[in-house]
Amino acid sequence: MTQIRTFGRYPTLGEMKAYYNRDDVLDFLYAESRLRNFLIAFRKRSWEIHPTSKAHLQEIINDVIQNRIEKAHPDASDSSPLAKFDYLSFHSPNAITVGDKLVGVDLVFEVDLSGWRRSFEALSGVIRLLDDFEVCYRMKYSGVRSLHLIVPFEAFPKTFNGESLL
After folding, report:
1. Of 2, 3, 111, 161, which one's alpha carbon is 20 to 30 angstroms from that of 102?
2. Per-residue b/e over 11-50, b at no fewer than 16 CB within 10 Å?
3. What is the per-residue pLDDT for 24?
4. CA dist 12 → 69, 131, 140 (Å)
5. Are 82 and 21 in contact (CB under 8 A)?
6. In contact, 82 and 32? CB cutoff 8 Å
């Protein structure tokens, strides 16, 4: 049987499992969880997680895959494509608050093309420009559909304060 290769656009169960077992993905997700409040999402529901290590994050991911996704699809095989909201995704709030006060907002470019490769190609000019100006940014692939290029609030000059520079 030929395995379907979606390269991120509504992945198969096997692709999602493989993606979240990659060391580079786990390293990135764990680092993100240390910087900001961090949410895991499945079927339009999300909840905050606080992994204490990369291994603990892997346990959380495996638990969600086994006890939510696979239980929701008992007849699915690793080559079964997942529906739009039947995959795992991770998010961190882009609004930074201290108590009730908004102190900043990250700049987010979200490219949702058919697969992460086309999304990355579409953002390549922006990435080169940010690299040329040595602007700090993070790239986050949702694991399913879209690529996010994030310029964290902390990368902006203090004088910016979220207001126009013009």
Report:
1. 111
2. bbbebbbebbeeeebbebbbebbeeeebbbbbeeeeeebe
3. 87
4. 12, 34, 19
5. no
6. no
pLDDT attached to residue 1 = 44
3-class secondary structure, 1: coil
> Is 106 exposed, middle or buried (CB count within 10 Å of its CB: 0-12, 13-18, 19+)?
buried
Residue 151 contacts residue 137 (beta carbons within 8 Å) = yes
Most confident of 56-65, 82-91, 137-146: 56-65
Whole-number Å distance between alpha carbons of 24 and 16: 14
CA-wise closest residue to 91 among 52, 43, 149, 33: 33
Residue 104 forms beta bridges with which residues? 96
Structural tokens at position 93: 């709030």
